[in-house]
Structure formats: structure tokens, C-alpha cells
Give the backbone structure.
Amino acid sequence: MRRSSKTWVEISHSALTSNISAFRTHLGETGIMAVVKSNAYGHGLIETSKIADKAGVEWFGVDNVDEGLALRKNGIIKPILILGYTLNSRLRDCIDAGLSFVIYNTETVRALQLLKVRPIGRHPSKNIRAAFVHLKIETGTTRQGIAGAELRSLVRALKRTPGVVIEGVMTHYANIEDTTDSSYAELQLKRYHKAIKLLRDEGIDPPWKHTACSAAAILFPDTRFNLARIGIAMYGLWPSKETQKTAIHQKQKLRLTPALTWKTIIAQIKYVKKGTPVSYGLTYRVQHNAKLAILPIGYWDGYDRRRLSNTAEVLVRGQRCKIVGCICMNMCIIDVTNVRGVRPEDEVVIIGKQKTEEITADDLAAQIGTINYEIVTRINPLIQRIVH
Ligand SMILES: *Cc1c(COP(=O)(O)O)cnc(C)c1O
């Protein structure tokens, strides 16, 4: 293969499709929303979405209008829900592109009224666009959402707004990944049911009811309703150790395969004497006469300077090699003293497998006190994603 970039991300087509079909089996009748926000958790928005589309997911979940528009531009015609905040100035774009969005405050309803979307049904032409909205219920995450007490007035305001279709009602759990104790999730679910009842009293029964993220969908069938919003697990990563442990304890058959491999190459090899300081700040001195390799990636690429310097490992010729010294903006240094036959432009694995060794997003997350989500979403979106 002729390489054109000094670092790239490989996405496994078969891993993504097998994770999606594993969920298909696991979820039965429940539909799948492929959550592809944040550049598909670093996996490449368009690349991933095309694969998920073919694999038959029912919905796409994005963070913002621009991600939604990018999907439309690339031929995704399935329903897309914008999960994050939509500026009032972008509501028109949502309506024109048929992007559903989340609603939870009266200001947005007012902005919709000002847009004067034509009432549905009065002009039964194909060109009529509606504002498709999903009500986000605040059930205890204390983030985006409308509290139960304000729900009725919001719904009444929406009912008075022409051209609005309440297509979904949703909520999001606060503490579903980090614990094997489901009591808080149960409380949230109870509040969600109460909201659904209130909506019914108002004569509204949205066709899509959804509360589950990956962890909820994996462990708690009651959270699934008719749609599950699957992010991290679609990429083959477990939402947390606790989720994985509980799934094993429940004797689940769900198998997840990580879909992402992040690679670079060796840019230079050099031999240095014991005591030689390495990189900015002289934070490392070689402990022995050493063979070092320079890698052409750094914190710009998403390789955390503060926490991975002098800590992380990469794979070269199937062997683990330590990052030595400070990670720079576009370069870092590894110790390859024990690796035989290393040459410039040898392939280096930052995340993924090489021969019998593997460095996972979970390994890096554990090393630096974060979650696998942050490791993969931080990989610079400008790095090329190659689907295999
Ligand atoms: C990101 C997100 C998800 C996906 O969560 P995972 O844990 O990655 O499955 C689901 N719902 C909402 C509202 C989200 O923002």
C-alpha cells in the first residue's frame, strides 16, 4: 500500500456491522439509533454512517445541525435526530433538511412560531416541511430537558404552533454506566412514564419513545421502548467495566469488537547515550544507552500531552514501546531499544492490535483516569479514516 499520510485511523467494516447485528439480536423489536455525534466517536462521521445505514439502523443521532446536514449531503435519507442544542437561527435549516431536533424550552417554541411553518395537512403537497421534534424530559440527569412541572405548558404551546410534529419523547440516564445499582435509573424511568401519561392526557402519544443509551440497552430491557440510542457499544467499546461485568454476570451473549485502529509510522531512529535528556522540558533522561524512535504525531492529533507523556505505550513490530519525554504538538519519542530491526516508516500502532499485542482505548483511558469515550472522540477529526 502506498501511504499518503503519516498518521491514519483504520475502521473495520466487519466490526461495525457485527456490533450492529449483535444489537439487532439483543434488542429484538426495538429499533436502533446509531449515535454518530462527535465524528462518530472519532470513527469518521460519514464513513461510519454509511456502514450503519447499510447495516439497517432505523435512526441516526448527531449532536448538531451541521453533522445532520453532512449526513444528508452524503445521501443518508433516514431519520436523523439532533441530540444537542440547536440555535434558534438554525431551526429553519432543520426543517428544510428534515432533521428532527430535541425540544425542551419555551423559547424554542416561540422561535418556531415566528418561523410560521405551514400547518400540516392544509396543503397536502410533498414540499411541505414540518418541524419534527422530540420532547426531552428532565428525569434526574440535571442536564438538557424539561421538568415535569413545566411539561404541560410546553406541550400546550407546541400544540398551538402550526407545522410542528411531536415525533418522540425521550430522556437520558445519569448513572447507568458506573454502577451495578439500578435504583436511580428506575427512579428516572418512573418519572419518564409519568411524563408519557401527562402527554396522553394532552392527547399526544409520540410514535418514538426512547431512553436507552448503550449501557441501558445492554442491561435493562425496561428502558428500551421502541428505540435505543446506541453510541459507544456500536464502536465495539463497553460503556464501562461495570456494564461489561454485569452483562457477563447476566450470561449475555452480546459480543463487541472494537472497530478502530490508530496508526502512525516511525519518522527517525537515533542512538543516544545514557543520561541524554529527551524532548521539551528535559522531563526524561535515558536510563541506558538507548535506541529511540521519533513518531510524527502529538497532542494536535489527540494524543494527550499532560497525561500520556512518559506514560503511554505504542506497538512496534509487535512489541510494546514506551513514550519517553514530553509529547510535543506534532511529534513524540518512543524507546525502541529492545525491538530488533526497526526501520524508518515501520508501522506503529497507537490504539489497536499488532501481532499478538494490543493497546485498547480502555487501556489508555485507565492509564490517565478517563473513559474510553474521551480517548476515541479526541482523535483529531482531520486525520484520515480508512475503512477496511
Ligand atoms: C451520546 C448519547 C447517547 C449514546 O450514549 P452511549 O453511552 O455512547 O451509547 C445516547 N443518548 C444521548 C442523549 C446522547 O447524548
Observations:
- The mean pLDDT is 95.
- Residues 35, 37, 83, 172, 213-215, 229-233, 239 surround pyridoxal-5'-phosphate (CB under 6 Å).
- DSSP finds 13 helices and 20 strands in the chain.
- The domain at 260-359 is CATH 2.40.37.10 (Lyase, Ornithine Decarboxylase; Chain A, domain 1).
